Amino acid sequence: TGSKVGIIYRDANFNDAFEGLYCLHSSNHGSTFAKTTVTTENTTNVTDYIFEDDRMIVLHGYSTYYYGLNTGRVFVSVSWNNGQSFTSHKVSVSYTDNYGVQERCLTMHDSRYVPKLSADGSNIHVIFAGHNQSGVWTVLYARSDDNGHSFHEAVDINKGYIGNIQSGQEGLVSKNGHVYMSYLSTGAKIFLVRSSDAGVSLSNPSDLLLSNTHYITQAWWPQLKTDPSDDSGRTVYLGAGALMTRKSVDGGNSFSGT
Questions:
Q1: What is the separation, in whole angstroms, between the first and last Cα of the chain?
Q2: Phi then psi dihedrals of residue 195, to 5 deg
Q3: Do residues 225 and 183 make contact, with C-beta atoms less than 8 angstroms apart?
Q4: pLDDT bracket for residue 17 (50, 70, 90)
Q5: How far apart are CA 196 and CA 177, in angstroms?
Q6: Max CA-CA distance within the chain?
Q7: The Cα angle at residue 107 between residues 101 and 113, in degrees rounded to 5
Q8: What phi and psi values does residue 238 have, to the nearest 5 degrees?
Q9: Which of 200, 210, 206 minimizes the C-alpha distance to 178?
Q10: What is the DSSP letter of 160?
Q11: pLDDT, tens digit, for every residue of 120-175?
Q12: For the chain: N or C, fewer Cβ within 10 A?
């Protein structure tokens, strides 16, 4: 951004044991860099990253597997001074079963990159997969309305609407208070959840590929994009792996196109 460069990376030893999540930041077009620690929380992957003006936002996670996902935590780390220092927040949730308190959330990409982090003024939006507070695997959404100083508790945007979710293909975009979130079923059905008040209230999930609205009824790797020429944020595009694009000009209420 301008003359500033920021690089986020995970450091590990020869055995892949975590040694730190770091930021290299430069204010002179990358001629020289300084190094700071993003977080001391154990991190296995960095999923998304935004650097604009003086603010850096990093979405990262920690996961271990033993006969499936054993432990999974999701974090957002924010810097307001070009990476000179960071504050970290755990945005994933937990639930209790017969074995105690469990943390099983996950931030990842399924083969292709999909934006899972979005910033719109002082609002920061995050989407990820995981078990909700009742222990149900779903799609979760967390937001900050104070520039990343704190985050509201993550909420379940699927609300039991579908039972088989393709983890890693959830994504979101935002602009001027409009938030658009997409996710996929294992049956290749794309669902949209939207908000027009910066995530305070959310719509119910809607199937974007119904047979009475589009001739393509199944697709993979959905991705959303707001229109850079529409400052209102009401124009949004949907692309998917079937070489398909659709457009909404009414805040996601309806879509048209091929």
A1: 35
A2: -145, 145
A3: no
A4: confident
A5: 6
A6: 57
A7: 170
A8: -115, 125
A9: 200
A10: T
A11: 999 999 999 999 999 999 999 999 999 999 999 999 999 999 989 999 999 999 99
A12: C
210-247 b/e with 16+ CB inside 10 Å = b?
A: eeeebebbebebbbbbbbeeeeebbbbbbebbeebebe
Amino acid at 205: P
Cα–Cα distance measured from residue 116 to residue 170, given in angstroms and rounded to the nearest whole number: 7
Residue for token pair 């520039």: 147
CA distances from 115 to 6, 26, 31, 169 (A): 18, 24, 29, 9
User: Which residues does 215 contact at the CB level (< 8 Å), separation at least 6?
Assistant: none
- C-alpha 174/C-alpha 159 separation (Å) is 21
Q: Name the helix (H) or strand (E) containing 123.
A: strand 123-131
Q: Which helix (H) or strand (E) holds 48?
A: strand 45-52
Q: Is 105 within 8 Å of 128 (Cβ atoms)? A: yes
And the tokens for 40?
Answer: 């001391």
